[in-house]
Amino acid sequence: MSDDPGRTREALDRVAARLLDASVYERVGIAVGSTGLALLIGLVVVAAAGHNPLLFAQQLVVGSVGSTGAFTRTLRFTTLFILAGVAVAVAFRAGVFNIGVQGQLVVGGIACVLSILWLAPFVPNGPVGGAGLTLVGLFAAVVAGGLYAALPGVLKAYYGANEIITTIMLNFIAIGIVGWAVDGPLRPDDARSVRTEYLPEGVGLPSLVFSDPNFSILGLGLALAVVGVVAVGMTRTSFGYDMVTSGYQASAATFSGVDPQRTIVATMTLSGMVAGLVGAVFAIMIQGYFIDPSGIGTYGFDAIAVSLLAANNPVGVVPASLLFGALESSGSHVQIHSDVPVQLIDGIVGIVVLFVAAPELFRMLAKRTGLGGEKR
Amino acid sequence: LGDENGGGGGDQVAIISSDAGFGDNAFNDNALEGLEEAADEFDLEVTQVEETETAEFAARQEDLAEDGSYDLIVMVGYQHYEGLAEHSETYPDQYWMLINDHVEGADNVSGWIEMNNEMSFLAGVAAATLTQEEIEHDDSATDPDEAVVGFAGGEDIDLINAFEESYIEGVEWVDDGVDVLTGYGGSFSDSEALNDVATSQFDDGADIVWHAAAAAGAGAFAAAQDNDRFAMGVDSDQSVADDQYADVILGSAIKALDEATYQVTEAVVEDDWDSVSGEQNLSIEEEEGIDFVVGQEFEGELPDSLEENIEEAKEAYVAGEVDLTCGPTGC
Amino acid sequence: MTADAPPAVRLEEITKTFGDVVANDAVDFRLERESIHALLGENGSGKTTLMNVLYGLYEQDAGTIHVDGEPRSFDSPQDAMAAGIGMIHQHFQLVEPMTVLQNVVLGHEPIDGGLVDEDAAREEIEALCNRYGFDVDDHLETPVEELDLGTRQRVEIVKSLYRGADTLILDEPTAVLTPQEVEGLLDLLEELRASGRSLIFISHKLEEVLAAADRITVLRDGHAVDTVAAADTSRQELARMMVGREVSFERPAREAVPGEPVLETEELSIVGDRGLERVSEIDLTVRAHEILGIAGVQGNGQTELIEALTGHRVPDEGRVHLRGEEITDVGRRQRLEAGIAAIPEDRNAEGLVQEYDLVKNALLGNQTVPPYANDGWLDWSAVETHAEEIIEEFDVHPPDPTARAGSLSGGNQQKFIVGREIGHDPDVLIAAHPTRGVDVGSLEFIHDRLLELREEGLGIVLISSKLDELRALADRIVVMYEGAFIDEVDPIETSDAELGLLMAGQRLEEEAERETGDRSTLGETRPEPDAEATVDRRSGGDRER
Amino acid sequence: MSLATGASRRRLRLGGLALLAAVALAAVLVVQFDVPLERILTVGFLNRTLMLASPIALAAVGGLYAEKSGVFNIGLEGFMIFGAITAAATLSLVGASSQLHVWLAIVVAVGVSLVLTAGYAVLLIRYKADQIVAGLAVWFIGLGFAPFLASLLWGTVRSPGLASMNRYSVPYLSELPVVGSILFNQSPLVVLTLAVVIAAWVVLYRTRYGYWVQAAGENPTALDTAGIDVNRVRYATVLFSGAMAGLGGAVLLAHAGTFIGTGDTMVDGRGWIAIVAYLFGNYNPIGAALAALLFGGLEGLQVQFQTVDIAVSGRLMGLLPYVGVIVVLTVWGKTRMPSSVGEPYESEE
Ligand SMILES: Nc1ncnc2c1ncn2[C@@H]1O[C@H](COP(=O)(O)OP(=O)(O)OP(=O)(O)O)[C@@H](O)[C@H]1O
Ligand SMILES: Nc1ncnc2c1ncn2[C@@H]1O[C@H](COP(=O)(O)OP(=O)(O)OP(=O)(O)O)[C@@H](O)[C@H]1O
Ligand SMILES: [Mg+2]
Ligand SMILES: [Mg+2]
Prior knowledge:
The structure holds four protein chains of four kinds. Chain A has helices at 5-19, 22-48, 53-65, 68-93, 101-119, 127-159, 163-183, 217-236, 238-248, 250-255, 260-287, 299-309, 314-337, 343-356, 359-369. By secondary structure, chain A is mostly helical. Chain A has a single domain, classed as ABC transporter involved in vitamin B12 uptake, BtuC (Orthogonal Bundle). In chain A, helix 4 (68-93) crosses helix 12 (299-309) and helix 12 (299-309) runs parallel beside helix 14. Chain A is globular. Residues 1-5 and 372-376 of chain A have low confidence and may be disordered. By secondary structure, chain B is of the alpha/beta class. Chain B has helices at residues 27-42, 57-67, 81-90, 116-131, 158-174, 191-203, 218-227, 238-241, 257-269, 304-318, and strands at residues 11-16, 44-49, 72-76, 95-99, 109-114, 136-137, 140-141, 148-153, 179-184, 208-212, 230-235, 249-255, 278-282, 290-294. Chain B is elongated. Chain C is an alpha/beta fold. The radius of gyration of chain C is 24 Å and the shape is globular. Chains in contact: A-B, A-C, A-D, B-D, C-D. Chains A and D meet through helix 7, helix 12, helix 14 and helix 15 of A and helix 6, helix 12 and helix 15 of D. The structure holds adenosine-5'-triphosphate (2 copies) and magnesium ion (2 copies). One magnesium ion binds at residues 47-48, 171 of chain C.
């Protein structure tokens, strides 16, 4: 990196300029269009089912940002979606379809909790010990998530096993094995529920700014920091260029000296590391112990939608996560205050993804309606 | 209590499902049924919250408590315990009802422990009794010469293992010589998998299969119909709830959850919380807390040995002569 | 040719535009019956477009098509086929895992009781083959992917004939053939003409055109410049018509003498992906100030040899040295950094990332090389400067660093790649088919640059299927056959015919025997087709859209 | 089989070896641990394997047609869910429960799946949607809307007990040992599946439509220049894949008799297994069906083990098929995928 600030600045400007070319507007347009259209369809379904769509729309808003509680809840989901979304984006960008973020976050989460529980007896109580354990837990999660994702990476790179299928299978396997362990060997005798031991006092992220015990602004900060690191890494480093180029055109990347197999494994590992972090944040910030993973939200799957909505751009993942966080958050409110079956929200999310997959549709629509000018 | 939130006609109560969700025709629906009955009776409004992610249980409890408009919040399933242990303190003025567990020292919680082990024990007694009898109904029949019964579980987890173990102990209490075939479908939603488990057991000689698989249990009933054998229901009288299969449901091992939710709601409405506060039990010892009921198409058709054995088993249990290995939620 | 019969095809004022690009601008074209008519023109001059219009793939914006004197309009190739027009595309339109028979009948399957009647099809194809002396019927049950390129092309021709084509269009049919196969093809064309068919063929190779065609139409920038009789014109004249200026075919004088060896291999052997030995015991030496040409029919191990030199493949035996240092196990990246540049065989798939702009493409291969990268951090401004330099020096059009690589024409893409690869002072350049599909103007430019680089001291390995290119550039030519260097020849002393024989595995003394051989057995004496080449073509982006 | 390439022959040989090894290992285990084989490998087990395999085989045959023609329909799981919920809703709405109504429900399910797939196909083919993403979206939509619909219809995410498909029984013939029970005392849907598989094989390898399907996936331009509309072929195969997945879901429901929408729904991953099945079967309908049979057999075998009380942790054993899929993909990973899968085709004008 150049240490002349002027040059650095100039270079950054150029990067920004390239990122923000017309196609970025187009992508934003597509994202907004997809979401809008999907919500519209959702509202039509609500109306067709005999409920008041306006009321439903209002409840979506109130349930996500209508009160401090709702807003904190939205941010809590957003934090998880950002991390999981970045995990997906890293892989998709590099042309590797990691559908296994859910399994990797489960493995990361349990590794986090176990490492903390194992080490806790050797660490002094108190804030310093707690912080140390927290760091250990995050580290363990990153390592475990990375390793668990490296496996399908290796299978793809060296054995040609389709990663879409293997990662889906590994999701089932992670959830099954961890579920079995949490219900059996890892379950303390006095536990009423299916869970591990509680994390020791002092482990966790302090509740600053918001009083919600299950949300810490530090968690959100961590997620945003990961976004920053990944975004810079992708655009400003050789490794990032190798990865992204492999995603665009593997043959050209290979010819330019990129080792395709190693890149696939590295990509999966990196993606899994971030996914592992999701599990750690879930365990440390929200749960305080680990539960049967079949009871954990499907952040890893929803993250696919998040990432796609963001066109697999790590920075774009942030607004997309806010949207998904809000939708997820409003689910609770809708449940309580509306008769509309809450599964509708999952369906709407699916439609968003479907539309995001078909940018051409929106180009066509834009052309028909004369919006968005002459693109393409 | 609750007079100040006068909106929307009558007072409000809420219920949060277990991770199996409503629509299981068993556990959750049974609890809901009692609540709705009470709601009719006392002009209440019931808010159903279906939450299938256990990780979100605590948050749902908080959402409802924070809202402040619910006179009673009912939670189905012991997985709610962790969250409630905290929230019963944070919201001391909120009345809570927990099904399947109780919170020590929290007198705003009415904690109902349902003795699943006792219920399973009775199911075992019934199955072992009936397999040796000659029963014919529509196309189905038992094979009285062979004494084999089946157990078909949903997920292979500690909770259901306790059902299995207690069922076997019930069978053995009647007759050591009765074989019990067991199997798990691996899911509470995959009825086809449970169908396969039950059919495999019917093939291997079982003439009665009892399921503990929530919604997927329908697969066991369908299997009984296809194989001209019998099945038994769980939690509530499933010959009523699942009347499509009434012709093969000999009976159901039940727990009076609906009674319990009704009773607690009534206590709230009549300002008599103390009567339900703290640990409550749904057990054989309580009047009709745990029981075995004959299926609606089989009333009066089953041999007297069934009622005799069930009554005898209950008495033996109350007298402390039966020692079950497993507790209500695990071994 | 009967004087009063209408021409087989007459195109009148055909205009076809793509957005702002006028691919064909009021083109007139007349194909006489029973004649061979060549279409000549630079890349992008509109040849393929014109033929696609005739074949019903494109609809013209203006103009009319007459077939046998009747005005026709074709909405689809099916219409064109019904009118007796067949087209053999530059990139074969064959379904590789399907058999030859299935490929030939595709879209015109004889049906018996709802099922495809393969027996009926077989009879008909055999009859066709016997009539023209094709060997295709020997392979009817063979999947196309197991055939060599020459046979595939004959399958394409049989396919058209099977569909009843009277007029055959062949788009750059000779691009992938050996000289002997080219000769065979041209003979076949004459036979087809003799049987009453009319043929159009497109080529960039002036000699071929002059040898085979009755008439030649030259296109430039979408205009038909002129139509001339082959007998009345010359290479020089044709080139001038194509490019619009004089083109030199002179070989510039060599100044520097070869220096120290820079790249050497020692008994290099490679077992290919299918377990066959692809390269056997090759000793190769390239010196500074030297261009070493490698001639050979595609699929004789060149691809594997190139990979071993560039660092994309570890040889099974033998060693590779760079300036005396062993680099056998060194991967592509370090070799790049050590000064081995390479122009890829397949520019669409390997040379450029089609979706990237030219700036991002300028980094390709340089992503660990200072000044573009320092300790893993990229310096985009340096890359951008580099891109601008390449564009300027190599006259890349459009001169816009933010243009998407995929939007450039083939020649411009190639110039950009050459510029990038020699941009950071390599010691060695492995140039694989550096002018494949490139028009005469760009070709001249690239040739000049390669010669300049040789003067500057580079050691260049030039792999090409074009003999004239090898003869124009190389200081020495080695001929590769079945994985081995079977001979080394002097580019000036050796004739095309001699080189061609060597490439077919015949040592020069065997020539006499060879002369009596039957042409139709040519395909069988060929080595097995190269598995990788097949894969590359499939995955590559250069498929005709 | 003129289309059996060297690679698939090699794979067959490898598969044969693996099978032999498995049989040998099983034999050792049986002798060593005194396994009651006659209680495990029963006729009923074979029968149930066929039942378990049918929905998977149907979806797999559909999926392989789409992929053969160049469109990766990764939405099979979603369409199976739609098939199941539609069949359940139909049965529930008509309210009657004769076998005829079950057939009606299946037909309606296929019809609705066709309509839904039509929209999906337009997105994929006309609007060139990313096939992987769109397919995942179908799964998400299925997971959301099926329970939603169930809630609207029945107040809960689960249907009440509905009519199910009965086995037919051919008098006398069904008394024959083994064959009698498998062929003549069988669910008609198993027979239907068998018919679909065989028909799919014949059409793919013996008719012109089959040639077109193969060409559309390998080299669409070749097909186009032969005068066949590539996208029409692809529309047809995608529609077929959706219909078959829907049929698979309906068959599942017709056997199970209840729709359940909690968790992963009653379809429970079968659509994913279907994809693996046709990959494993190397895009050959019969191969895919055999692979489906293998997965069905694995699932059934695990239940048999439990029934005869061979100690296995059900929860861990339940993961075996997933591990099996990974092993299969790793060992046989390099299936010959059609070259143009995932690339939208645009004919020049
Ligand atoms: N599908 C298309 N879309 C847009 N423009 C096109 C398309 N096909 C061709 N063109 C334009 O038409 C011009 C003529 O292209 P064409 O392919 O006919 O050239 P050609 O003479 O066959 O070139 P070559 O010798 O390289 O094969 C091109 O320069 C290009 O700009
Ligand atoms: N589908 C297309 N869309 C837009 N432009 C196209 C398309 N196809 C071709 N072109 C344009 O056509 C021009 C040349 O195309 P063409 O394929 O004829 O290149 P070429 O010079 O023949 O290269 P090659 O020899 O590698 O095929 C390019 O400038 C490109 O912009
Ligand atoms: Mg052309
Ligand atoms: Mg060209």
